[in-house]
Design brief:
- The chain is an alpha/beta fold.
- Helices cover about 40% and strands about 15% of the residues.
- It has a domain of about 160 residues: NAD(P)-binding Rossmann-like Domain (Rossmann fold, 3-Layer(aba) Sandwich), CATH 3.40.50.
- A 6-stranded parallel β-sheet has the order 2-1-3-4-5-7, with helices on both faces. The protein has a two-stranded parallel ribbon with strand order 6-8.
- β4, α4 and β5 form a beta-alpha-beta unit.
- The chain binds NADP nicotinamide-adenine-dinucleotide phosphate.
- NADP nicotinamide-adenine-dinucleotide phosphate binds next to β4.
Length: about 280
């Protein structure tokens, strides 16, 4: 391995991975974004390809698909960690989620692999509203979810990437867990209202029963595995256990996290909700 050895980014075109890629390049690092569509390819469902994907890398940023809460995630992270150790990687940074027992099992698996680790345990991303499954609903003017009055301290994917890059390139982050939240916990209705106000057009938040939510997903032919995951998210992860604020961004970056309103202003100015994509 040389000082020019690439940093592997598993999920390199994802919401956090592509931001990590940009920030690493700005710092002069060589990167190797990885996913099913890269060469070499990395597919969480095809472990036979993982060794080649990690070959010669100095470190890795790892985002798991579909979610660390799904069965088998901890075993997959343990195997990736074992390979990373075998291939001589010096650091692994794992993106994790708050309040998920499955994710905590995966974190433990990483800690045992013998490579210096950093865990970035994040709350719900702001960017779920602009770069993921809620974007279409925002554009259509109605967000219908079974989220109730629960408050979530949405965090910005840019800040997750900044923390990951600090952990990959600076000293002092080895074997640490950063739990990242934004500075304010909002209900989903309040978050949607904030976006509506910024865009100057009505966007309704409608509270759905879990049954109605499931029926809607089935009608849209969403795969059963994804429906189960979303149901788990709205019943377990969003039961209030994650509403508390943390100081993770400050601990890792030495400054407080940005407010949801700042994310909304920037995303709106960038045209995140202006056209169907
Ligand atoms: N969204 C949230 O609010 C939130 C909060 C906390 C934690 N998380 C965790 O964040 C992780 C996802 O990270 P992210 O949001 O940065 O990524 P993302 O945006 O979900 O990443 C999408 C990329 O993953 C790749 N991908 C899909 N299936 C794959 C597979 N089987 N093997 C390899 N790559 C695959 C796809 O690229 P290709 O099509 O090229 O393969 C796609 O571009 C999940 O583990 C989730 O639990 C999310």
């Amino acid at each position: 391995m040389t000082s020019n050895s690439p940093i592997a980014i598993v999920g390199g075109r994802g919401k956090t991975g592509r931001r990590v890629d940009v920030l690493l390049k700005v710092k002069g690092c060589t990167t190797r974004p990885l996913s099913r569509s890269t060469i070499p390819a990395f597919d969480w469902d095809w472990p036979e390809g993982w060794a080649e994907a990690l070959e010669g890398a100095s470190a890795a940023y790892v985002t798991f698909q579909s979610d660390l809460a799904v069965p088998g995630a901890a075993e997959a992270i343990a195997e990736l960690g074992r390979l990373a150790q075998e291939k001589g990687l010096e650091r692994i940074v794992l993106l994790s989620g708050r309040g998920e027992p499955g994710a905590e099992r995966a974190e433990e698996a990483l800690k045992g692999c013998g490579v210096a680790w950093t865990i970035v345990r994040a709350s719900w991303f702001n960017q779920n509203f602009s770069e993921s499954f809620l974007r279409e609903s925002i554009v259509a003017g109605e967000v219908a979810l079974p989220a109730g009055e629960v408050r979530e301290p949405f965090v910005d994917a840019n800040e997750i990437a900044e923390v990951a890059v600090a952990a990959l390139t600076d000293e002092g982050h080895a074997n640490r867990l950063y739990e990242l939240t934004g500075p304010r916990a909002l209900t989903f209705a309040e978050a949607v209202e904030g976006i509506s106000r910024e865009l100057g057009r009505p966007i309704r938040y409608t509270q759905l029963s879990l049954q109605a939510f499931r029926a809607g997903l089935e009608e849209m032919a969403v795969p059963a595995e994804m429906i189960a995951l979303l149901e788990q998210l709205f019943t377990e992860t969003l039961d209030g256990r994650n509403s508390g604020l943390t100081r993770g961004v400050e601990e890792a970056l030495g400054r407080p996290p940005r407010d949801f309103a700042e994310y909304v202003r920037t995303a709106a100015a960038d045209g995140a909700w202006s056209m169907p994509r």
